[in-house]
Amino acid sequence: MSRNNQGKPTVIPMRVPNVGQPQQQQINIQDTAEQPCPKCLGQHFDVAVRLRVFSKLNPTNPTGQDALIKMEVYLCRACGHEYGQPAG
What we know:
Shape: flat
Number of strands: 4
Helix content: under 10%
Radius of gyration: 19 Å
Number of domains: 2
Distance between the termini: 31 Å
Structural class: mainly beta
Mean pLDDT: 83
């Protein structure tokens, strides 16, 4: 756990979606829970990008053009498991 010079837990500002101007909410890191890898219980993750294509042939595509969609995902450093996927 990270502490500041006075020995108090570090407070990390977090953006909260809101209509109009974004607001910042302060969260005490001690009020959170760690999320280990469900496959190997590893504690460290790397950010990766998963790519998808929204086809121009899809009738729900309003643009009529192929669109590349980038999704940020987290991969366990220990076993490579993608967080949020079944641990099978």
